[in-house]
Structures are given as C-alpha cells and as structure tokens.
C-alpha cells in the first residue's frame, strides 16, 4: 500500500458537488478522470499507442472531421435542403461577410471579454467564500443554507431583475456570468476544504503549524487540484450564462448574433455562432485544463 | 552511523507523568445517544527524563490513544498528564510524534517532509544540515527528492521517523516506528535510535508490538492490558530491563523477561518456544 488519499478524495468531493447542467457532468467526468493519468505514475517501458501525442490529437480530431464530411455530403447531395442546413462553404462565407463588416471580431471580443471578467469576479469570490465556509464551521452554519438556496435559482430567473436594476449595460451581463462562475468554485472549494485528510491536518498541528501557516502548508496544497477542477467547471458555466445573458439583453456578442439571426432566418449565421461558441469554449477550457494538469502533477 | 549533532544546544529531556489517566470514547447510536466506551482507565506511570519506555499491548488496547494524550493530540476524560510537572498543552511543543502511519504530505518531497519537523526559529543553514544528516541516517539520501507515493511503505515510515527526530523534542513519542520494516532495516533503525539517544538523551515513549524490540531498546517495558474482556485497559506490568544498550539478544535474563511479557500478552510458552516472538508485526495502515 502506498500513500494516496488525494485522488479518491477528489473524486468524492467533485462528485458530491455536481451542479445541474450536462456540460458540467461531462467536465466532472474529465476532472475526475484526469488524476489517473498523471505523468510520474506511468510505468516505464513500452509506450502504448494511446499514450502517443499524435494519436491523441488525431483521435480527438477524428469525429469533428467526420461530422464536417457528413455535413458536406448531406448538403451537396441535397438530402437536407440548403434552407434548413446551409453547406459548410455558406457558413464560411457568412463568417467572411461578418468579418468584413467588422462585426465578427467585435462580437467574439466582446463575448470573450464578458466571460473573462465574469469568470474572474465570480471565480475569485467563489474562492474566497468557499474558503471561509470550508474552514470555519460557524460561517458554514450561517452561510451555506442561504447560498444553497441562491444556487437553486435558475439562471434565467435573474435576468429580468438584473435588467431592471442595471439596464442593458455591461454590468447586468457580467453580474449574471459571475453568478454562474461563482457557484461551482464556491461549492468545490468549500467541500474539498472540509474533506482534507484529518490525519494530515493533525500531523501539521503536531509539528507546530496553525492558522495561516497550517492553511498554506496543508490545506491549500491539498485542495489545489480540486479547486482548479472547480475553476474549469466555472468557466464552462460562464459561457453558458453568457449566452443566456446575450440572448435576452444585448446588442452585441455571439448570443446576440444567435438571437438576431434567428429573427432574420439566417441559419448560416446561427451555425457559425454555434461553431464559434464551441471553439472558444473548448479553447479556454483547454487552457485551464493545461493548468490543471500541471497543478495535479505538482500538488497531488 | 554517527549521531553527532553540534548544530544547536541539545534539547533538555523532560519527564512525563500519567496520573490516573482515563479515556472514554462516545459510541453514539440512535438507540443510545450517550453511550461511551472506556478504552483506558487509571493509567499511572512516571517516566523519568531521558528514559526510554516501551509500551506493548494487544491491538486495540489503547496504546496509540495513550501516546496521543501524552502529546496533547487528545485529552484524557479523567486524570492528567504532565510534562516536567506542567500539564500537557494542546499539541504540546515539548513533544514530537511519530505517528503509526507515515502521514507525509503527498505534494512534498521526502526532504521537504522531513524539514517540516524542524522547529520554528531554527536558523536556515543549521536546519538544512540537520535535515540532510537525519535523511542520511535513516538511509534515504538517494530518495530525498522523491514524493511519498514514489517510495515504499518502509521508506515513508523512515522519513516520518526522521521528521520526528528533526524536532529534537524533550519527549519523543513513537508509535510503532519500525512496524513496516524488514528485519535488517529494523535492526539498523533500532541502532540509530539508540545512537541518537546516546548523543542527545531525550525521553522516548515507544509503542511496539515486538517484545524483543521493546527489550532491546527500553529501560522499562510497560504492558497495557484489560483486566476484563470488554473493559478498559490499564498498566498491568512494568518490567525493568537489566543491562545497558546494546544488549545481548540471546541472554537468558532477557529470555525470561520475554516469556513473562508474552505471557502477559496472552501468548503461551509453547508458542514462544516455536518462535512466535520473532514474527514481525503486520504493518498497519488505516489508508
Ligand atoms: N477517535 C476515536 N473514536 C472512537 N473510538 C476510538 C477512537 N480512537 C480510538 N478508538 C478506540 O480506542 C481503542 C484503542 O485504539 P488505539 O488506536 O489506541 O489502539 P492501539 O492499542 O494503538 O491498537 P494498534 O496496536 O492496533 O495500533 C480502539 O478500540 C478504538 O476503536
Ligand atoms: Mg496504535
């Protein structure tokens, strides 16, 4: 028996704090799966095909390429009318057209900016409040029920209120996204701090640590990997809430593009917006994912 | 193996006094919300400064509990423990604990884990030297940079021992420090403990399952046992071991004491004659 409590605990912690959406469930699975493939534990010797970098990349690209091919075939053979499903080329042209009007870059930029600001604010607050609730039994008793109730409010329910309070400005959207990003981080940080191995905390205390030094030496490192999983979920939530916010109250951004195109029957632009959201979401997620891998190697 | 240490003034060994120590744990259930179970009761023991006392007893009889109380990790429900005449404080800084499990921080290297034992306020250079020296003494220099999950159970246990030794406490509390080691490494570590104790005579309370180890290391051996099957344990025998360390493992005097202690543990003479005493303890990890 070697000494490994952290991965199992993380599984338990992450799983116990799963939110609602499907996207979250998928990311939880990824986050939970990740620790098993950490670098240093890999047996030396013959490398399997599934460990090779090119195979991983090619394998991941396989299904998108197949979908693209199927899409092309379906639209050129006329299996589905172009008015229902425009061809890849038409979507590409819609992108070029929007870019020439200077709208594509603007929409992507404004949407990304909203997500990043909302993610930073919500994630930061989530870390803070999660740490307070996870470390102090008293604040757990005082705050956790209320926060749980607020978390239970569906995101769309906030929108009318936010619009009345903050009009259609940036604040209303950033606040909504912050709410979305706050809860996964808060939930996971609080839960994982509560579940830090008691034995290790006791050992830390026995060796003279307490307060901030105990936190920095034992508790914080113990939760770093799950905190980053929480941040990853928060980022996914931020994109989710962005579209909700922009669909309902905005004049710019990818959500607005979706709404506007829906009203004008521009299916090519709708598909374009969906593809852009997929790419941007995956891109930002991969960045946090890299950070997560590093953190697990460093701290777990 | 040398145990020189001119790094700082050696710590002053402290005496430990247990006066009628009892510990009951609550075993709450829905039917009996305030049921308790007495684990220890009326433990009375005076350990002199610089003395090595081994505690033996059946599994689950409360050895670890007693050690935890001595270190201020747990509080007795009755009686009191004092160190140098003062009551033990919460996580008493005069003590250092080598836990029954290694309890190393998984994200730190072995060297950094050992360094955790260095008391606050030690000058950096001296601390580093002390850590390196102890890592060398427990034979982990090669593995100093590895993480706990990359070393074996016995190596982790030696690292935990080094961490406790780093503290250079007045009272060293060791809970089965050699449980996970093979016979040879175990002998080496026993010698190391004796060397360190000779160089810096600190008080050592050592829990072990191995009667021979107790007789080899300790000035006195304390047998904890229950007087009735489900009742609390208390001190049932205190054996003063004759002779100076290192002792002759084959001496007839020790054989007689061994038989007595094994008898107290419930092992019959027939069993000892067939070498049950030499069976190594099964390493015990609650993980
Ligand atoms: N925190 C606790 N809550 C309830 N019961 C406990 C607790 N800690 C210990 N006990 C009980 O106290 C008894 C003594 O435990 P302890 O760990 O001291 O035994 P031990 O003598 O060290 O055994 P071993 O040799 O197996 O390590 C056990 O029966 C255990 O169930
Ligand atoms: Mg024990």
From TrEMBL, chain A:
Database matches in SUPFAM superfamilies: MetI-like (SSF161098)
Task: Describe its membrane topology.
Answer: Multi-pass membrane protein
Q: Which domain of life is it from?
A: Bacteria
Q: Where primarily located?
A: membrane
Tell me which Gene Ontology terms the entry assigns under biological process.
Answer: alkanesulfonate transmembrane transport; cellular response to sulfur starvation
Membrane spanning stretches:
54-74, 89-108, 115-135, 141-166, 173-193, 213-231, 238-258, 270-291
Which Pfam family, giving just one, matches this sequence?
A: BPD_transp_1
List the PROSITE patterns hit by this protein, alphabetically.
ABC_TM1 (PS50928)
Q: Give compartment(s).
A: Cell membrane
Sorted alphabetically, which PANTHER family does this protein's record hold? ABC TRANSPORTER PERMEASE PROTEIN, ALKANE SULFONATE ABC TRANSPORTER-RELATED, MEMBRANE SUBUNIT
Provide the family line: Belongs to the binding-protein-dependent transport system permease family.
Full protein name: ABC transporter permease
Species of origin: Orlajensenia flava
From TrEMBL, chain B:
Q: A Gene Ontology molecular-function term?
A: ATP hydrolysis activity
Q: What is this protein called?
A: ABC transporter ATP-binding protein
Q: Does the keyword rRNA processing apply?
A: no
Give the source species.
Orlajensenia flava
Keywords from UniProt, A to Z, are: ATP-binding, Nucleotide-binding, Transport
Source domain of life is: Bacteria
Domain ABC transporter as annotated: residue spans: 16-251
Pfam families linked to this entry: ABC_tran
């Amino acid at each position: 028996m070697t000494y490994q409590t952290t991965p199992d605990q993380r599984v338990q912690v992450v799983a116990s704090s799963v939110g609602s959406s499907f996207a979250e469930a998928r990311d939880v699975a990824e986050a939970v799966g990740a620790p098993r493939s950490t670098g240093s534990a890999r047996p030396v010797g013959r490398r399997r095909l599934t460990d090779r970098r090119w195979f991983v990349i090619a394998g991941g690209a396989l299904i998108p390429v197949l979908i693209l091919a199927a899409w092309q075939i379906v639209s050129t053979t006329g299996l589905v009318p172009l008015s229902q499903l425009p061809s890849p080329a038409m979507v590409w042209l819609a992108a070029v057209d929007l870019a020439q009007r200077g709208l594509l870059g603007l929409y992507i930029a404004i949407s990304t900016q909203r997500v990043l600001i909302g993610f930073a604010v919500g994630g930061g607050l989530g870390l803070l409040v999660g740490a307070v609730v996870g470390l102090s039994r008293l604040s757990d008793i005082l705050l956790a029920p209320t926060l749980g109730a607020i978390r239970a409010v569906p995101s769309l329910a906030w929108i009318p209120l936010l619009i009345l309070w903050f009009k259609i400005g940036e604040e209303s959207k950033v606040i909504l996204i912050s709410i979305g990003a706050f809860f996964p981080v808060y939930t996971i940080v609080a839960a994982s701090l509560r579940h830090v191995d008691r034995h290790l905390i006791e050992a830390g205390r026995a060796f003279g640590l307490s307060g901030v030094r105990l936190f920095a030496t034992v508790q914080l490192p113990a939760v770093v990997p799950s905190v980053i999983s929480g941040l990853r979920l928060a980022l996914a939530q931020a994109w989710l809430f962005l579209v909700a916010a922009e669909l309902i109250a905005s004049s710019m951004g990818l959500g607005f593009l979706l709404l506007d195109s829906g009203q004008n029957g521009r299916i090519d632009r709708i598909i374009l917006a969906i593809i852009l959201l997929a790419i941007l979401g995956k891109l930002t997620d991969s960045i946090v994912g890299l950070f997560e891998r590093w953190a697990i190697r460093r701290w777990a | 193996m040398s145990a020189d240490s001119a790094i700082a003034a050696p710590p002053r060994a402290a005496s430990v006094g247990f006066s009628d120590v009892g510990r009951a744990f609550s075993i709450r259930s829905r039917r009996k919300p305030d049921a308790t179970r007495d684990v220890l009761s009326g433990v009375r023991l005076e350990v002199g400064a610089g003395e090595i006392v081994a505690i033996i007893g059946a599994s689950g009889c409360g050895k670890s509990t007693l050690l935890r109380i001595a270190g201020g990790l747990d509080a007795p429900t009755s009686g009191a423990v004092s160190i140098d005449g003062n009551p033990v404080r919460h996580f008493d800084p005069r003590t250092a604990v080598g836990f029954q499990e290694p309890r190393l921080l998984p994200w730190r290297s072995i060297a950094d884990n050992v360094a955790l034992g260095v008391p606050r306020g030690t000058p950096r250079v001296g601390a580093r030297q002390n850590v390196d020296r102890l890592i060398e003494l427990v034979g982990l220099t090669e593995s100093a940079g590895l993480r706990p999950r990359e070393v074996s159970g016995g190596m982790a246990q030696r690292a935990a021992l080094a961490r406790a030794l780093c503290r250079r406490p007045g009272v060293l509390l060791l809970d089965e420090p050699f449980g996970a080691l093979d016979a040879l490494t175990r002998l080496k570590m026993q010698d190391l403990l004796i060397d360190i104790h000779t160089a810096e005579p600190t008080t050592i309370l050592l829990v072990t399952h191995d009667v021979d180890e107790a007789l080899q290391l300790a000035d006195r051996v304390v047998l904890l046992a229950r007087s009735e099957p489900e009742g609390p344990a208390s001190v049932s025998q205190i054996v003063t071991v004759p002779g100076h360390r290192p002792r002759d493992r084959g001496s007839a005097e020790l054989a007689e004491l061994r038989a007595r202690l094994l008898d107290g543990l419930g092992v019959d003479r027939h069993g000892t004659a067939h070498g049950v005493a030499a069976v190594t303890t099964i390493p015990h990890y609650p993980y």
